[in-house]
Amino acid sequence: MQTVTREIKVDTTFYKSLTVKRSEIAKCGFWGYVKFDDNKIIANKNSCRKNEKDNIYYYQLKNRDQLSLYFIEGTVSAFTIPIKYRFKQPNVSEEFSSASLNANLFGGISFGMSSFFYRDKVGSITNNHKLTLGAFVGSSVVELNSNNTSAAVDPLPSDKKIIKGLASVGLGIAYSYNKVNFAGFVGWDYAIGNDSEKWNYNKKPWIGIAIGYSLFNL
């Protein structure tokens, strides 16, 4: 039995032969989970190749190097909509309203980018940009009175007021930069209960805006 030996020189060329190129990493699948650790971006990537499912990749950055990764994800968040503009209707004027206490659940698909900027010894920077398209459901209340039931066949008298619950549905678009959120919505409010049909803006479209700040991430 003959034994054959081979001498291997461990140098820069040898290590390069073991390194997976960036273009090869990104060929298949979306990025899964990414962590910025010191000067390394570690990626546990989703992949459609069976032989890559257990692989973990990383980019090693030099001082002042910057790298951006794009992602798509599902998003669910809560918003309040403080300002609504209700369009002019036949026999009803337009209305700007500072909405009463309301709660809305917004869900959709987000398209985003995370950028990583490595600064040796002084602290690195990570910035996240995200655009979300989706739909929302919500609830709030409205006070019916003689002014906002004026278009009804039988409007409320001037000395009578009624509090009604509202169910809201609609579509929205939200932009997030790190923890700051800006959103615009188009929606419809449905008053609930007796005399709800008297409200001038029942089931009529409106547009609204919201600004928020994320205190923590789930």
Question: Topology, pairings included?
Answer:
Blueprint: H1 12-17, H2 22-25, E1 33-37, E2 40-44, E3 57-60, E4 66-79, E5 83-86, E6 95-98, E7 103-117, E8 125-144, E9 162-177, E10 180-192, E11 205-213
Antiparallel strand pairs: 1-2, 2-3, 4-7, 5-6, 5-11, 7-8, 8-9, 9-10, 10-11
Structure, briefly:
The protein has 218 residues and is mostly beta strands. The chain is built from 2 helices and 11 strands, in the order H-H-E-E-E-E-E-E-E-E-E-E-E.
What's the story with the biggest beta sheet?
8 strands, antiparallel
Q: What are the secondary-structure elements, in order, as H or E? A: HHEEEEEEEEEEE
- Multimerization state: single chain
Give the structural class: mainly beta
By DSSP, the count of extended strands is 11
Q: So what's the overall shape?
A: rod-shaped
Unreliable stretches: 18-29
The number of helical elements comes to: 2
Helix content: under 10%
Which strand order do you get reading across the main beta sheet? 4-7-8-9-10-11-5-6
Distance between the amino and carboxyl termini? 62 Å
Cα-based radius of gyration, to the nearest Å: 28 Å
Proportion of residues in β-strands? over 45%
Report mean pLDDT, rounded to a whole number: 79
